[in-house]
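Listing 4. Sequential folding, example run.
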Amino acid sequence: MQSKPQLLVWLTCDGVHLDPGTGKHTILGVFSNIKGRSFPVVHPYMVWFMTLTDVAPGKHRIKISMSLDPTRPTELIHREFESQSPVHRINLINELRNLTFQQPGDYSILIEVDDEPILATSMAVTL
């Protein structure tokens, strides 16, 4: 039986630098909440960085959705990635530009690989 993909790392940050010589990732400005002075607030740029393992060889789809109402998620990221082996660690850099938050609250985030949920979490957006 195939195990489901495992999420080893999930970070929200200002940016990720990928060193072309070594392939190492440098994570810049990790944060876990957003403060706004007034709403709606638009966050100009952020990265959702993740590391996956236990992913079967082949092509896969990742989907990341977010919403203030967890029963009505809005899809923000939908992309393909490839796995060479279940023992490999796969780093994915997901860039978000001009993400709008209409009001303060705890925004639900759902991460799915091949339509299977692997993480449900939240991000606080406050005044």
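-- end of first protein; second protein begins --
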Amino acid sequence: MGLNDVASAERIHIGFFGLRNAGKSSVVNSITNQSLSVVSPVKGTTTDPVKKAMELLPLGPVVIIDTPGIDDEGELGELRVRKAKDTLSHSDIAVLVVDATCGLTTIDQQLISLFKERQIPYIIAYNKSDLMTNYPISKENEIYISAKEKYNINELKEMIARLAKQNKNHKELIADLLSPGDIVVLVIPIDSSAPKGRLILPQQQTIRAILDAGCIVVSCQDNELKQTLAALSKQPKLVITDSQVFQKVAKDVPENILLTSFSILFARYKGDIVEVVKGATQLDHLQDGDTVLISEGCTHHRQCEDIGTVKLPRWIKQYTGKDIQFVFTSGTEFPADLPYSLIIHCGGCMLNQKEMNYRIQYASLQQVPITNYGLAIAHMNGILYRSLKPFPNLLELFD
């Protein structure tokens, strides 16, 4: 599999953490065989998390993240430490780089506690071991290395690969819903918000997953759907639509054909589908003055009819008949405090599973209902139950 074949959100994210001058950046550069991070004897050279999507043998496609020193000082230092800790939310594996001549510090121990609390598999890499004469007995997740002398760097990479394999949480996007030879119709509106000359990532990934399952993909726009269905000699197993045209598509697809949206598929693939299905029903309980957070996992140029900032707020106000306030976030920005009555998140195609699950769990801890675009739109159009029929285990939520 080539470097450009796997989206960043689908790659294993490996975060490197530790004190300033423990040698994190030197270790990252040694592992990647690149000058990915600036190396200097001056403490605090790495001021922001540095990310790089790459191939790391024997593991394969990964994202390497070099973080600022966890012991940074001053007002800016506190911001850097916060950035480093934020990286935990999307790290599948953590590598704690420790100065072997100093050993584990109290701050290192606190980091280890955070790894355990967040259920992040971790390795402790004791760097600068070339300056030592004797090593303590290593534990299963510990290794003594030297970035300077390239000592045990390959062994560290192999440890990371083993840990990734042991903790791989594989989810199917759609293959488990299909049988070879099935026909799947994708409804892809081409409007002012559609990227010119290409399909958006959820559409690309869904097409590839259907083809990999040995099935047939038929794509059309929403105004061509009736004609497309009539032209098929065999009934499609499933119709998947862009959420923005859910209502129109639901009217055009016969009840005996399964129907869902890209956003709902990704809700199941990326996070806790049960939690976000329950969150959709909170739309019925919103009151005047309530605030809804609408959060997107990516940043993009806003169009005049942007779904997140324009269409969803309009539809929610129309559905509830209430004076609702809205707050918007995008990209890696996700608030620490959640004083909201409801969170509506995008499908999360640009976030890895770790980050999407973290956001859902974080909302749950603060007792804030969370749903996503597709589920919210389906609920407001009275087709939530129908849109979940492709996933029979979810229908019991309505019993």
